């Protein structure tokens, strides 16, 4: 059975002192902030990977559209 989204595991994270000090002073939940930052970084990396994997197909489609126009363009009402 795959792990639940709510399953947590403790880990060590090394942070610059000035960021940690300011986060504590502002009352930020450091674990939550790290989790949000990691989720953002993962989404960006997934996007980069997807673009790298599909870049040739995207380029090929763009070239096709430039040469032949959009499929069914003659039926567009706008």
UniProtKB/TrEMBL annotation:
Which InterPro entries does the UniProt record give? Post-segregation_anti-tox_CcdA
Any matching Pfam family: CcdA
Domain of life the protein comes from: Bacteria
The protein's UniProt keywords, in alphabetical order, are:
Toxin-antitoxin system
Name assigned to this protein: Post-segregation antitoxin CcdA
